[in-house]
Design goal:
The complex is a heterodimer of chains A (about 240) and B (about 270). By secondary structure, chain A is α/β, with parallel strands linked by helices. Chain A has helices spanning about 50-55, 90-100, 105-120, 135-145, 165-180, 190-195, 215-225; strands at about 1-10, 20-30, 40-45, 65-70, 75, 150-155, 180-185, 200-205, 205-210. Helix content of chain A is about 35%, strand content about 25%. Chain A starts with a strand and ends in a 12-residue tail after the last helix. Chain B is globular and about 55 Å long. The two termini of chain B are about 30 Å apart. Chain B has helices at about 1-5, 10-25, 35-50, 60-85, 85-90, 90-95, 105-130, 140-165, 170-180, 190-195, 200-205, 210-220, 225-230, 235-260. In chain B, about 40% of the residues are buried. Chain B contains 14 helices and no strands. The chains are: A alpha/beta (about 240), B mainly alpha (about 270).
Chain lengths: ~240, ~270
């Protein structure tokens, strides 16, 4: 996957938001992701990580620049996305699966392994509205990892899983790496990033500050975290 | 586009089932509301228009005229009003992946269509009992349904796209539909309009595609309807206007979608 000088502007239209009339969430971001690598994206809140991931998954389209990708991209974003609270867990597996491009037959074949991986037990037949954040993660992650993809994009959601599930996810992600799949991950747990990623990109205020060696990127991020004041948009005058 | 729909049929089925389940699984009477609601409306209209206001329709018994009008109008109205906010309401489904947005209003109109079928069957049964048989035109019915669907789907795609950017559209549509309701012969005969207005205004009235669609339904289900209106409405207009409108509106809606689809998600956050 290749991003060339990608910029993303959000058009806030109502008058009361005119303070941020044109918010450039990303500006002049260029990066390459090679097959079979795990790329991490780190940065402070509001740096543009989710926007970047959305663009990679083709949920959003860049205002400037171009994106090239080879293969199917699946994404796991925040835990409300792709789910309907009134339907059961099982119903949501079918809905979510077809939203991600799987046919009914594909989902039926994988239904048992999805339910097993999630370890949700009887709750799979309860409406999704009764699930906790951690349970939603389990379901969402189980669905995504049982479908066919070439590139997997995961936003900051892994944090809500308990340690046992996080380990399970970690193992599964390493399996994918061995199979030659590409992963792009974002997380605030720098420890996880160090263990998992081959390369890390540091994002700040929509621009890439550093791309490359994992340890160095993390150190630079730690430097940034020591800054006293931080504002997502512009500092108030 | 037809090919795309065929490929995505599983997703469409899921979306339609979702819509129906969300609507009918919790209410106690469930799916019965699909035709209870229009039936009550027909009831109260009958009381007010036939008994109190003494409206008469010479082409066929008023109760059948009402049922054919109300049921088909409800499908049109519920389909449009239900889908205008659909893109924003389902933004969490849309933001999951690269989503073909028009599938949402499409699925809502289809769900309303499934809603419509019991009432339609009830209408056909009542018509054949009261009028003792069905006209030959009943064979047209699938075509009429297709035209009705195309018009509703095209408009729903168009309005739901506009709504994402200009939220006023929902209220504009509400007003527009209530006005259109009175300009369509749901509960009164066309010949009444012909008597009151000049030739030019009458042709404007008949140019309304919904007038044509309602007429087509009545012609195909109610025996003796076609002979009764033959004089007032030439066949070319009866069939031509709805069909042409259906094609135009559906193709322009899809053209508009294609042009703006990369920008829709930007406006879905709030």
């Amino acid at each position: 996957m290749q991003l060339c000088s990608v910029g993303k502007k959000y058009p806030f239209t109502k008058q009361q938001f005119s303070v941020l009339k044109d918010f450039w969430a990303l500006k002049d971001v260029s990066l390459d992701v090679y097959q079979g690598e795990i790329v991490g994206i780190i940065g402070r809140n509001g740096a543009g990580k989710t926007t970047l991931l959305n663009i990679m998954a083709k949920v959003l389209f860049p205002t400037e620049g171009e994106v090239f990708s080879n293969g199917r991209v699946l994404g796991l974003f925040n835990l409300g996305v792709g789910f309907q609270d009134e339907l059961t867990g099982r119903g949501n597996i079918f809905l979510n699966g077809s939203l991600l491009g799987a046919t009914k037959k594909e989902i039926e074949d994988k239904l048992n392994s999805i339910v097993e991986f999630s370890e949700l037990g009887d709750f799979i037949n309860m409406p999704l509205g009764t699930y906790s954040q951690g349970m939603r993660l389990r379901l969402g992650f189980s669905i995504v990892v049982n479908l066919k993809f070439d590139i997997l994009v995961i936003d900051e959601v892994l944090a809500v899983g308990d340690v046992l599930f996080q380990n399970k996810c970690f193992e599964r992600l390493m399996d994918f790496k061995r199979e030659g799949k590409t992963l792009v991950i974002t997380n605030q747990s720098l420890d996880l990033m160090e263990r998992l990623c081959d390369r890390v990109i540091l994002l700040d205020h929509g621009k890439t500050l550093f791309q490359g060696n994992v340890v160095e990127a993390i150190n630079r991020y730690r430097l940034l975290l020591n800054t006293e004041k931080f504002f997502v948009g512009r500092a108030p005058s | 586009m037809i090919k795309e729909i065929f490929l995505k049929r599983d997703l469409i089925r899921e979306l339609v089932m979702k819509e129906l389940r969300v609507r009918y699984s919790r209410p106690v009477l469930g799916f019965a509301w699909a035709f209870l609601s229009p039936l009550f409306l027909v009831g109260i209209f009958y009381v007010v228009f036939s008994l109190i206001l003494q409206v008469r329709t010479k082409e066929c018994p008023f109760i059948l005229y009402l049922m054919s009008g109300v049921f088909t109008w409800r499908f049109f109205q519920d389909g449009l009003m239900g889908s205008v906010t659909s893109l924003l309401d389902n933004k969490n489904l849309i933001r999951e992946s690269n989503f073909t947005h028009y599938l949402l209003p499409l699925s809502i109109v289809l769900a309303n269509g499934i809603n419509f079928l019991p009432s339609l069957i009830l209408l056909i049964i009542s018509a054949s009992l009261i009028l003792k048989g069905l006209p030959l035109f009943i064979l047209w019915l699938p075509l009429v349904l297709t035209v009705h669907l195309m018009v509703t789907i095209g408009l729903s795609i168009f309005f739901s796209l506009l709504y994402v950017r200009w939220r006023d559209i929902k209220y504009v549509l509400e007003v527009f539909l209530s006005i259109l309701f009175y300009l369509t012969p749901v509960f009164y005969s066309i010949y009444l309009v012909k008597d009151v207005f000049s030739g030019f205004l009458f042709s404007v009235y008949v140019a309304n595609p919904l007038v044509g669609i309602l007429n087509l339904y009545r012609v195909s289900i109610l025996k003796g309807f076609y002979p009764a209106i033959q004089g007032d409405v030439p066949v070319a207009i009866l069939v031509g206007i709805p069909a042409a409108f259906a094609l135009i509106v559906l193709s322009s809606a899809l053209w508009v979608y294609k042009k703006f689809k990369n920008h829709i998600n930007d406006y879905l956050s709030y």
